[in-house]
Structures are given as structure tokens and as C-alpha cells.
Amino acid sequence: MKSRLEPLLWLQCLAIGTIPLELLLIWLILAGADPGSVPLIERLLVWGVGVLAPSIVLWERPADWGSLLLVRIPYVNRDKNQQALSTQQGGIISRIPLCLAVIGLLPLLWWLDDSAVLASEFSPVFGQSRLVTLLLSVPLLALIVWHLQQLTQALGWLIASEQFDYAKPRTFSNVDLKKQRTSLGLQVLRLNPLEWPEAYQTPDKRTPTVAVTSQKSKDNKINKASASLIPTREPSVTSAGPIETEKSEKQDEGTNLDTKITEINIVTSRSTKEHDEHAETSRSKQSKPYETPKAAPGSK
What is the CA radius of gyration of the chain? Predict the structure, then answer.
């Protein structure tokens, strides 16, 4: 994922749009003059100088990924990850675009020169000689070869960045960079690495120290959380005293209330019994007048 943090690689991907514009400019330049008497030789010469010669140079010394032709990243400011990118140049990822340029730009140049008559009115060099138009087309063809190689390298690193092992130490000195890479421009380019959101980052399986560090940070957070809970639990213990006192008072009130209720029940039961006895006595007294009176002696 280190290569995706380099902003210069993302800038080099803009070649997807600049290469068609460069071909359009070549078409307009070739439209400035009529084809010469031997267009076959002229086209081969332009192709050989503008495409084949730069491809041979970039085959041995690939285009430095840290160079934008006019400006480049200083040698002394490149870290180990940036030096690791330089070591990846020179293989298949750098030579495939050169083969495509050598094979594909010759028929494309042929077609552009044949159809350039249609845009003669729009040519910025209309009315110039054939030699001028051919000489102006050569640097544009070389620029296309440069951009094509850098574009392929950048896309390869950005898409398959996980295949590169940045954990291993890599040494690529400034002397090696000067001898083995084609780096052009002033050393004034300074770009800060990109910062992607944490949600888009994936942990590196090859660096177990990251997992250990994260585990330690989690343990520290747990210890801090447990330490913060200790003082919050102490007031709960002290506050249990008045709660238990209130509960005991409520229980005493309940027992007193139960005692009063039992006394009231006893008194009520006694009064009920006395009332029943009094009622029975009164009934017995009232039943006597209904008894049959005895006959008086001597009466009939």
C-alpha cells in the first residue's frame, strides 16, 4: 500500500488523457505542409528518431518515476519506500510499453500523415516547410514514449501494490539512480505523501509489530477504564448505609403496625364475644313471659 501514498504516481496517470492530445497535436502539425516527394523515407526517419531511439534509451535506463521532465524529486529527499520504487523499474513492467510504442506508433504515424490534409486549415504551422513539420513532430513522439512508460509503471504499482515487499531493506543510492535511471528536470519537486482515511487502510500481515502495538494500546485503554471505574464504585458502598437504615426503619414501622393490628383484632374479638353473651342473656330474659302461667290454688 506504500505506492498508493505517492501523489506523483497519481499525477502520471493523467497521461491517459495527455497522450491522445499529443497525437492530435502531431496531426495538426503534419497538416501544415504537403507530403514531400518521398513520404515513406520521411516517415521512417521521423519514427526512428522520435520513437525507436528513445525506446532504446529507456530500455536500458527507464524513465525515473520521480521525474516530470521539467521538475523532479531531489535525490537526497527520497526515503526508503521511494528508493524501493526505483528498484522495481527495469523489468517487464517498464519494457512492455516500449514494445507497444515501437510497434504501434509506426502505423499510427503513417495514418496521421495521410489524413493530415483534412486539418490543413487548422494547423498552427500552416504554410511552413515539410522539414519544419517533421522536426516538430519528433519531440512529441518522444514525449509519448516517455509518458507511455511512466503510465504503465504507475498503473502497475497502484493496482498490484500489495505484491511488493517494502519491509525488506533496499539500497538504491543516488549514484545508482543517476546511472541506471533517466531522470530529467530541476530538483525542486516536493510533494507530501497522501493520507487515506483509516477505513480504506488494510493492516499489513507481514509486520506483526503493528498487531502487538495495537494490542498494547487496547490493554492500556482497558487498564485506564478499570482505574476510572474504581472511584465510581466506592460511593455506592458508602451510600449503602443510609439505604439499609431506611430499610430497617421501614421494617420496624411494619412490625409496630402489625402489633397494633393484632391488638386491635384481639380487642375486637373480645368485644364481639361480650356482645354475643349479652345478646344471649337478653334473649333468655325475654323468653320467660311467654311461659304458661301456673293456675292459682283454689281457682277453677
Answer: 52
Lowest-confidence region among 68-77, 123-132, 161-170, 281-290: 281-290
Q: CB count, 10 Å around CB of 98?
A: 23
Residues 99-122 pLDDT 10s: 999 999 999 999 999 999 898 889
The amino acid at 109:
L
Q: Is 72 helix (H, G, I), strand (E, B) or coil?
A: strand
* CB distance 204 to 210 below 8 Å: yes
Q: What span, in angstroms and rounded, lies between the C-alpha atoms of 278 and 270?
A: 12
CA separation for the pair 8, 268 (Å, rounded): 103
Q: Give pLDDT, residue 37.
A: 82
Alpha helices in 31-87 (DSSP H): 39-47, 53-60, 80-87
Which of 39, 34, 29, 24 shows the shortest CA–CA distance to 117?
34
Nearest residue to 173 via CA among 89, 80, 88, 91: 80
CA 236 to chain centre: 44
263: exposed, middle or buried (Cβ count in 10 Å: 0-12, 13-18, 19+): exposed
What's the predicted TM-score (pTM) here? 0.63
Q: How many residues does the chain have?
A: 300
Decide: 146 and 63 in contact? Cβ < 8 Å: yes
- 3-class secondary-structure state, position 186: strand
Report how far apart the first and last C-alpha atoms of the chain are (Å, whole number): 144
Euclidean distance between CA atoms 227 and 268, whole angstroms: 63
Could you tell me how far CA 43 lies from the centroid of its own chain? 49
pLDDT, tens digit (0-9, with 9 covering 90-100), for 1-55: 477 888 999 999 999 999 999 999 999 999 998 887 889 999 999 999 999 999 9
